[in-house]
Amino acid sequence: GAIMVLPRGGLIDAAGKPLHYDRVYYLGEQDFYVPRDAKGKFKTYNSHADAFADTMEMMRKLIPSHVVFNGAAGAVTGKRAMPAKVGETVLILHSQADRDSRPHLVGGHGDYVWEHGKFSNPPETDIETWFIRGGSAGAALYKFLQPGIYAYVNHNLIEAF
């Protein structure tokens, strides 16, 4: 998780005009490094101490076994999806614990984006894919203009395969 403090006076654009939102959603992106046995099955251990050496070996290779939002595969889909109505503006807060991420809202974009999570900086505008550094958090504001299903993804496509 992360702690992101919103400005007491609310969000503003580069000209100092107030920005409003109807909903806020938090997405924590995490990498997990779960060792596998020779047959490719996930290993189990009696204790964290027993798992330490194998887990560290996986982590040093920087190849996670799982990359998820909010702690689990499918955590923000189906019944746990993040709904928004046409005309609503949504503030998306995104933290990334480990590696850099490139968030992208398929079917939308960031009307206003604070890549560095610092709301005293003016937001960037109309960003299709933004950048969240590992160990950091950022935010994007988007007004939904069309009905449909919008997918929020890490646009680092090399990791999609």
**Beta-strand fraction estimate:** 25-35%
- Integer average pLDDT: 92
* CA radius of gyration: 18 Å
Q: What are the secondary-structure elements, in order, as H or E?
A: EEEHEEEEEEE
- CATH superfamily label: Cupredoxins -  blue copper proteins
In order across it, which strands form the biggest sheet?
Answer: 4-3-5-9-7-8
Q: Describe the biggest sheet?
A: 6 strands, mixed
C-alpha geometry: elongated
Number of helices in the DSSP assignment: 1
What's the architecture, going by CATH? Sandwich
Low-confidence stretches: none
How many strands appear in the DSSP assignment?
10
> What is the helical fraction, as a range of percent?
under 10%
For the record, the count of structural domains works out to 1
Helical/strand content category: mainly beta
Ends: how far apart? 26 Å
CATH class: Mainly Beta
CATH fold category name: Immunoglobulin-like
How does this structure look, described?
There is one protein chain. The protein has 161 residues and is mostly beta strands. The chain has one domain (11-31, 68-159): Immunoglobulin-like. Helices cover 9% and strands 32% of the residues. The protein is built from one helix and ten strands; from the N terminus they run E-E-E-H-E-E-E-E-E-E-E. It has one helix spanning 48-61, and strands spanning 11-12, 18-19, 23-32, 66-69, 89-96, 103-106, 110-114, 124-127, 136-143, 151-154. Strands 4-3-5-9-7-8 form a six-stranded mixed β-sheet, with no helix packed on it. The chain has a two-stranded antiparallel sheet with strand order 1-2. The longest helix has 14 residues, at 48-61. It is elongated. The mean pLDDT is 92.
